[in-house]
Design goal:
By secondary structure, this protein is mostly helical. It has helices spanning 5-56, 64-80, 89-121, 123-126, 128-143, 146-157, 161-185, 189-197, 202-239, 245-255, 259-289. Helices cover 86% and strands 0% of the residues.
Amino acid sequence: MSERELPLTLKDIEEKRKAKSKDSSTQKVQNQMHPMRNVWIVLILLVLTSIYAFMSFDYGNINWSEAIATTFANLKIIFLEADLTTITLGEALIQVLITFAIAFLTTLFSAIVSFFLGLFAAKNLGGGKTSTIIKTFVALIRSIPTVMWVLIFAIVAGLGSVAAVIGISFHSLGYLTKMFSETFEDMDEGVTEALKATGASWWQIIFQGVLPSTIRSLSAWTFMRLEINYIIALGMGAAAGAGGIGFNLFMSGNFYYNMHEVGAITFLILITCVLLEAISVKVKRSLVTK
């Protein structure tokens, strides 16, 4: 091969390498865009289906201008003219405490049981077969809505706060067990390995290594579930006769049609949710400082 042909050959090889690299990069970008294209197609189909559903409803003889004006008038009464008329403020606060008590009990029961189930459901702590069985069991629990669990237990205990507490606790069990087990699986393996090297037993590893390492995440999930259970308890107050401020909200809005009282009760619920969030943040900060 002559000296003139050698640079040309090397140049051709370099151009082919660059072209191949460019094609590979283009193919990679196309592969990344392909899933996003499917997502956009699904979203567009959902939007079109929703538009078609709303357009195909039988709205009867609704006067849209009057309906919109009435809606804004009700919103004005709810948020700007809130007032308690059928119950006093003291009675309303007692009902709020009843609702909070239901949420607190359901969260407490489910968190305690979920902690131990989560330990055995974690693959790094409970083993493969045990983990699979427990995760399958709690997945079945989560697949059934909370209202259905309440109605199922209402057959035994009757409609009321007992059925609501058991039903909400059961669904919370499935939720927290999943969250706790994933938290245990994501923890640093070095903590458990170090304790195993010292000859610590399984329970010593749990309470001296696993729990201190994950307490902040566990408390965060527990407080989140407490807030969810508080909202669910509001609905169960009306749907299952569990009592609490949810029942008063239902009666004011659907029986008395008293928008003033609906607004006042709504503000009480919002204030309670804000207080729960503030307590949650304070507790998590105290755990971090420790």
